[in-house]
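Example protein as discussed:

>
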Amino acid sequence: MRPSQPITVNVFVLSPDTRSERRFDLGLTVGQLKNKLELITGIPVQNQEISVLPSEDAAQPLCILADDEKQLGFYGVHDWQVLKVNDLNPATSFTGQLSDTSQVEKFELSETEYAQRQDTVLAYKQRHKIGRFAEQPADKPEETLHVDIPVGARCEVESTEEDFRKRGTVRYVGPTEFAKGIWVGIEYDEPIGKNDGSVKGKRYFECRPNFGVFVKPERVKVGDYPVEEINFDDEEM
């Protein structure tokens, strides 16, 4: 017993403005098919040229459904082939106009007009305080750090150089204009500092040039630190 032939076919319908998957009866005549395709593609029956392609990117059609009296099955259309519908007279239809936005008048608002409207995303964010309109937390006052380093005390400053002690006298403890927090101003015993007790034109204490420095309190050790002379290499002058 011979297997029965399929009576319907699943195909892709492709036109300048549409792409869809459809099922058609192979007993449809080409003329009946065109009536159905007009509803799908918007191309009038008299303007339609239907090509059968093996795939959407195929360069050449397998055939043209040229005889309106022939049935779809006559042309050997198979599942998942492409029925490409061309418009032979696009001037009398809307072909291509559905996807052409070049002639569409654009609705534009100036920034001022947009800001005055109450039905916009901007207005919604303003009402609900979202994003850049959210309430900003008030700056917390900087906590006052208690530093137990008396002015006039002898001290030693932490150094990254082994066996090199930076000793001096505490001359200032408190806030500064050049940076946040509490700083300790020290007059070194030797000219290994960075200033004369002033930074950016603001004076905090008096000392000779290159004898003054400002460091954070955690780098300072207060104690009985006598003055030490720095011994330079005899070959250096």
Q: What stands out?
A: Residues 30-41 form the longest helix (12 residues). The mean pLDDT is 86. The radius of gyration is 44 Å.
